[in-house]
Design a protein that fits this description.
It is built from 6 helices and 10 strands, in the order H-E-E-E-H-E-E-E-H-E-E-E-E-H-H-H. It is α+β, with helices and mostly antiparallel strands and 162 residues long. The protein has 2 domains: 34 residues, no CATH class; 123 residues, no CATH class. A 3-stranded antiparallel β-sheet has the order 3-8-9, with no helix packed on it. Strands 4-6-5 form a 3-stranded antiparallel β-sheet. The longest helix is centred in the N-terminal third of the chain and has 12 residues. 16% of the residues are buried. The mean pLDDT is 81.
Length: 162
């Protein structure tokens, strides 16, 4: 964007960006692409989350998981899974994932989560009021019970040591 050689204040830049961030544009300050994304929890994300839970290790590499698209990393925005940072300086993330307690409750159909989140710069800025269950997010093409066979519900393990 060309400001005609004139400098602008940070306030002016924010106001300008706020009007354009829903469609996406380059930030006038840092030149990075800035956009608010409306993301929907979907079948691929639910399958990925269940496949992480099926593994017997705490951390699982994404290559060992079940997914078809490249949207599975967004699952972290719902707080259902987390990834670890890479120890290599050239990489941001390690590719390792683990399910959170909230994620376990979700895959066992014990809680619902917002159907949509609105994200900016990798962080949730708002969530929809409409909720969705894991069964609903899987859709009609997948058998929930078949995917969950062999995964122990959190309530079973918490009762073990009481």
């Amino acid at each position: 964007m060309d400001w005609g050689g004139d400098s602008i204040t940070l306030l002016e830049a924010r106001q300008w960006l706020r009007k354009r961030v829903n469609e996406g544009t380059d930030c006038p300050c840092c030149k990075r692409f800035a956009k608010v994304y409306k993301l929907k929890i979907n079948t691929n994300m639910a399958r990925f989350l269940i496949s992480v839970a099926r593994k017997k290790t705490e951390w699982v590499h994404y290559n060992e998981c079940d997914y078809v698209g490249r949207d599975y990393p967004w699952i972290r925005l719902w707080g259902l899974a987390e990834t670890s940072k890479s120890e290599e300086t050239k990489k941001n993330m390690s590719g390792l994932w683990r399910i959170t307690n909230k994620g376990r409750l979700f895959i066992h159909n014990e809680i619902t989560v917002p159907l949509h989140v609105y994200a900016y710069d990798g962080e949730v800025i708002r969530a929809s009021e409409e909720q969705v269950s894991v069964v609903e997010s899987l859709g009609d093409k997948f058998n929930y019970q078949e995917l969950m066979d062999g995964i122990v519900p959190p309530s079973v393990t918490t009762e073990l040591f009481d």
